[in-house]
Amino acid sequence: MSWVSDYQYTCLQKLALNTLQFSGQIPHHIAFVMDGNRRFARSKHIDKIEGHSRGFSKLADVLRWCLDLGIREVTTFAFSIENFKRSSDEVEGLFNLARDKFAQLLKETDRLDEHGIRIRVLGNIELLPADLQRLIASAMLRTEHNDKLFLNVAFAYTSRDEITQAVESVLHATNENDDDGLLPTDINERLLEACLYTRHSPPPDLVFRTSGETRLSDFMMWQIKSSVLYFTEVLWPQITIWNFMAGISAYKRDSSRIDDFRREQRLHSAQLAKTSDFYSLRVQKFLHKLDANRRKLLIALASN
Amino acid sequence: MMQLLCLWIGQLLLMLVASYELLQQLCRRLQAFAHRSYDYWQCDQQQQNNRLLFERTIRELEKLPKHLVLVIGSDERYVNASQVQRIFGYARLVGIPYVSVYDARSPQHGYVDISQFCRQSASNNRIYLWSPQQQKQQKEQNGFNKTINANGRTCTELQVFQIRATDGHALIAQMCRELYVNRGTAEVQTLLAKRELLSEKLDERLNKQLGFPVPEPELGIVFSAVTCTFGLLPWHARFTEFHTHPSGRHFDAQCFAQLLYKYARCEQRWGK
């Protein structure tokens, strides 16, 4: 099973998809919380891991739909740091599934290049087993030149960990050469935002959570301040294109209502950038170094 | 051709949805008006009915939230101070000890300032205390014993807290700035050795700075046409169950009880 499926649309689905696409207001970035794999497995009397595996193949369908609808960025919550608390069998099973899928991804990179898909894994990947780290780092490095669809997989991720990581990177801003060090006045929300794992992504426009839970479970808490949240009862492996389109339609309906709030937020952010000298050489150098360090880490992990 | 057809269908659907929503909104306003007039005339009876309703709710529910947060969206036009106070009243009757209010609107657009109708706590200037006595004199004459809530426990004043826009992202940035200024100290250097330590420290300092020593909010009611957090506490609202109350619909004790049922039905798994 590939990362992007060859989904065959029926005529009606094609028509509905085109209607959605041509009537404008398509979200740029969607975040999915893929919940309900285990409940699905229980209801079908299959193994938990089989449930997760079905969930993954559904993700491939969803990616296809996103690609065809013209959505540029998709973030999925695959594995939370809190999930380490699950039984070791299940955690190991999930890691095996991830190993499989990333190994397969590395085999079919031509197909990803063809669609221009870039994979980014968000999270504290150093918490994962070494071989999985290597696979993830290689996949990220291998697809880093693609820019048509960004697929962010949150793996070993929690929002608290991400925010702490951002604070950590600011505190680590080395002071070898004191002239270039950050000034305390440079530090504000704008700078922290630029240090998150999602530093190169716009905030999600729509957060889509399946299985009827109405909480965010520590997923992108920093980024979702003006995102439309859409909760649906369906379990992730059972999601159909109609559920997906219902979510997009809900976004279309709601986005105009919070446009003013978004504009305010953007203005506020621009103002913060101005007051804190965000575009000064000093800050930009720091951010550049942050990118360079992250890439260095990936190269080190990939060559392990 | 296909494109034109799709565009046309899209426009038609949009128009249909818009007119449906307009009708729905009208219907809600009419209902709200009817409910309000009914409540107004049944004032004495109402209090007693709510009490009975909540007594039944509590008997049937296994868990209750300890901390409720009211999120008022930037587009909300109908929630005002009296509505907020009504919800405080329900929370007090049910026995929820802490309620916070986060209003994303500006003062020109109806921002609810709880200091207008709540008494500031003597020990902590971020905590406000609310009791129905401060509300209306007439309620004192309805024979309802205010010191006992529907749970049968004696209740003190409700502790309320106003979450400001600066309590969210900006506060985390402020903590970061303070740590950065002291980065040379041994304390910060030890924190940098392990991420969990830094995370715990941030948590501790944020809680101290917020000045509201209570559990993280467990239930959030979003008053808006859109389900959105509007930037509510990114550090603390991670496991909050959000329920949206559509803009314009009347919010009464029944709605509140329904939300409590929904909350009690959800299973918190904490990652497991």
UniProtKB/TrEMBL annotation, chain A:
EC number(s) reported in the record = 2.5.1.-
BP GO annotations: polyprenol biosynthetic process
Q: Which PROSITE patterns match?
A: UPP_SYNTHASE
- GO MF assignments: ditrans,polycis-polyprenyl diphosphate synthase [(2E,6E)-farnesyl diphosphate specific] activity
The reaction(s) this protein catalyses: n isopentenyl diphosphate + (2E,6E)-farnesyl diphosphate = a di-trans,poly-cis-polyprenyl diphosphate + n diphosphate
What is one term from the GO cellular component aspect held by the record? endoplasmic reticulum
Please name the InterPro entries in this protein's record. UPP_synth-like, UPP_synth-like_CS, UPP_synth-like_sf
The answer on whether this UniProt entry bears the keyword Transferase reads yes
What UniProt keywords are attached to this protein's entry?
Magnesium, Transferase
Would you identify the family this protein belongs to, as annotated? Belongs to the UPP synthase family.
Which protein is depicted? Alkyl transferase
Automatic annotation (TrEMBL), chain B:
Keywords noted in UniProt: Endoplasmic reticulum, Magnesium, Membrane, Signal, Transferase, Transmembrane, Transmembrane helix
Compartment(s) of residence: Endoplasmic reticulum membrane
Q: Which InterPro entries match?
A: Nus1/NgBR (IPR038887), UPP_synth-like_sf (IPR036424)
Q: What is its EC number?
A: 2.5.1.87
- Please provide one cellular component term from the Gene Ontology annotations of this protein: dehydrodolichyl diphosphate synthase complex
Recorded metabolic or biological pathway in which this protein acts:
Protein modification; protein glycosylation
Predominant location category: endoplasmic reticulum
> What cofactor is this protein dependent on?
Mg(2+)
Q: Which GO terms describe its molecular function?
A: ditrans,polycis-polyprenyl diphosphate synthase [(2E,6E)-farnesyl diphosphate specific] activity
User: Where does the signal peptide begin and end?
Assistant: 1-19
Q: Which reaction does it catalyse?
A: n isopentenyl diphosphate + (2E,6E)-farnesyl diphosphate = a di-trans,poly-cis-polyprenyl diphosphate + n diphosphate
Against PANTHER family, the record matches this protein to: DEHYDRODOLICHYL DIPHOSPHATE SYNTHASE COMPLEX SUBUNIT NUS1 (PTHR21528:SF0)
The record's family statement is: Belongs to the UPP synthase family.
**The name this protein goes by in its record:** ditrans,polycis-polyprenyl diphosphate synthase [(2E,6E)-farnesyldiphosphate specific]
